[in-house]
Amino acid sequence: MGINISHDIDKSLNLSFNEYEMKMRDYAIENSVPIITDEGLRFLEDTIKKYNVKTILEIGTAIGYSAERISRANDVCVYTIERVDSMYNEALKNIKALGLSDKIHVIFKDALEAYPDVENVMFDALFIDAAKGQYKHFFELYEKNLKKGGIVICDNMSFHGFLDKDPSLMSRSLRGLVRKLRDFHDFLNNNPNYDTTYYEIGDGMSISIKK
After folding, report:
1. What is the pLDDT of residues 109-137, one digit of tens each?
2. Residues 6+ apart with CB under 8 A from 48
3. Superfamily of domain 36-210, CATH level 4
4. What does the angle CA 45 – CA 48 – CA 51 come to, to the nearest 5 degrees?
5. Which is more confidently placed, 2 or 12?
6. How far apart are CA 83 and CA 130, in angstroms?
7. What is the spatial distance between Cα 177 and Cα 119, in angstroms, rounded to a whole number?
8. Which phi and psi angles does 52 have, rounded to 5°?
9. pLDDT per residue over 66-101, tens digit each?
């Protein structure tokens, strides 16, 4: 039995995709690669334009889908970190095919070990979309490279609704992830150096503005 590929796009979001981007979306579906939702993508692109982001660090490249959309949104220079070799190679292939190798720099490392690769680069924005249990560590590690007035965008802040569920009904590993993400919410809420706003978009997104 063949795989059914959905090309459904919410027309109200006013998003358009070229042929190669559609192939990337197909690949993500066929290979169970999580990519940003259309609603989240619209929000991400609008946010990048609103804050005139020109340099961004993305944590969690996957196949390079969001990185290439970010790059095109406002002529952005993107540094992006990926630790899985198959995803890294797929991202390199896609970025090269789209002619964006000079705008998107892919770093093949665990994000907790990649700081030396960007320690001399200052960013207008950070986009965190990787291991949920490490969000706080990612934030603390790279925020020193965020310019004053810069923003931190986080995806999957609702974690598929698990933050509102009874932890006793979860597996031990899931319970641990939920606890760490709740701790990250508390960290943002009580951080005197940032103003954070949460948005019920996609799987939950947040923007933290550095004071």
Report:
1. 999 999 999 999 999 999 999 888 899 99
2. 56, 70, 73, 74, 76, 125
3. Vaccinia Virus protein VP39 (3.40.50.150)
4. 145
5. 12
6. 10
7. 28
8. 50, 50
9. 999 999 999 999 999 999 999 999 999 999 999 999
